[in-house]
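Feature request disguised as a bug report, sorry. It would help if multi-protein outputs had a clear separator. Right now it looks like this:
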Amino acid sequence: MKHILVLMGGESAEREVSIKTGMEVSKSLKNLGFKVTEFDPYEKQLFEIQNISPDIVFNALHGRFGEDGFIQGLLELYKIPYTHSGVLASSLAMNKVYSKKIFESVGINCTIGDVYILDDFFHSEIMNYPYVIKPINEGSSVGVSIIFNKNDRDNFLKNIEWSFGNEILVEEYVPGKELTVAIYKDKAIGVTEIMYQSKVYDYNAKYKENFSKHFVPAKISEQKYNEAMSVGLKAHRSLGCRGITRADIRYDYESESGDLYLMELNTQPGLTPISLFPEIAEHAGITFDEIVDFLIEDAGCNK
């Protein structure tokens, strides 16, 4: 019987959703007949993973240190196979600046934006309204704000609690539909359209019940549906990802061009009861246990 260690929790801003993902994965692994050990780096020292000596680590950590190449590098040193993408792909996907450069280099449409020092942002108008503010290397829309006008900017500066370093990513705001594409076994398996009540598809809209509605499949034309699938798969391959990923896309359907804009690629999609990836997979006829079993089969080092 293979022994699987499930990494979950951690110290990132996404600790809560990571625990939920880890619990669902643990339940599935037990259903599949594996021996399971749950491991929270917030409560234990990472070197203890070596002492436990699992056959495979299922990485259910989200956010910094979990999906940015850090834990992947450590597991490579320990020579313990792990799920999801490797060191480089994870690091690149988590950094919105560098991943965008790669996406654009392979012909993927991305929003216009730049990185600014916080002081420059505080003391000057750097972009015409509306625009979006993001941390460079956080996931789950942590720290994201949309600035529609001067009043929004003043409120942001007045109430700022920025704990994401001395740099800030500022991008043009793209109106339209919020889409997400699931990649499984190196194929795009579906597109979801997301509607939400808040101004931005933030952490609450993603992970709190009744904060958003999901339409599977997305209510868009067949042409745009296929185009979104193509964008998601190209993004996945351009960074050298493995396992499963989720591509987040904005569809400016009211403009004359009707362009799609890739916002980011998530190498550790949430696997909670209300997460997008398992919802898309279910519509494609893929069960939760099948997702987890595939990730175990796909686990490795130096892949």
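(second protein starts here, but nothing in the output says so)
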Amino acid sequence: MRNLIVSLMAFILTALFVSGCSSPFGGSTLVALPVDGEPGPEDWEKAVPLDMRVWMGNVNIPEEIASLDLETSHRSTPECHHGPSTSDPVDIRIQALYNREELFLLLRWTDQTRDAHLGSWQLGPEGWIARPRADDGVAILWMPLEERAEEPAGPGGEAGAFRCQSACHMREVDVYDGGTKMRMEMRSARGKKMDLWRWRAAVTGPYGLADDMVIDDRGKRGDEGQVLPLENRSPSAAGPKQASGSAAPYYLVEEPRGRQREVKAAGLWEGGRWQLLLKRALVTDDPDDVPYVPGGSMPFSLSVFDNTFTEHHVMDGSAVLVLWRGEGPGNKERQIDEAMDL
């Protein structure tokens, strides 16, 4: 974990977040180049960037500004990937590297507000008052191995039909005077497991982890069955379940355990931008984790959460991660040059 934080700070100090050109491999291909050991700034300087935009959700702005646009507020549906058509897209850049044991992903996206608090309960003269808040985050959904052969490949090798929306399904609809409210849930309609990484600034960020999750026909859950975070609400809903004095957290956060700890993370918000470094072993002992094979590829999709989950931005399609394989350790520089020239 310490190495991950040191690496992230090194990127910022060397201004690598504003360098580099768009990927020469096409608009939907993320190329992971091989490195020796833990990647340093010089490795990331050669990493191939993939620039994308995600949209269909609100950005987090001060309430006094949001309240001026009541029509947009009424048309907003905060569940899943739905949102007002007038929302601005969020720019995100991804780079990838790998060594003999691990895959590294570096993500940077714009976000004018840092949301890393989950709210609280406050005890007043008339009883407990709930003041829930939400945090920023990002999620990456990987295509199941058994599903890859069934989907038509796009020009960059990506599976055209696979995206986050593939796992998002309507559970119920509430029609009321002035609009429609849809409740969505993440579920694999075909009964196949999807590997999901979810990093949240206030939930997994403090532990240097992303939540390693799985989506199947039962829904979405952590690989160890943990549900993070838990709502701190009493059965009567009149106040918190756990409290000390006149204040209590609105959500109860606990550290991911066991197989749910596979994805390490280091996140930093600075100057209106999140920078997030993720890493995971290429192959784990967890049957719910997809393997990453040098020379192979893995389709994925992602979502960005600005004030999770009220404002949710998602890719419209899918991308594909390609692990560029060299012919030997002595050819690393040549293979990087070849990759950049494609």
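Even a blank line would do. Unrelated, but nice: Confidence is low (pLDDT under 50) at residues 12-26, 64-85, 152-160, 327-332.
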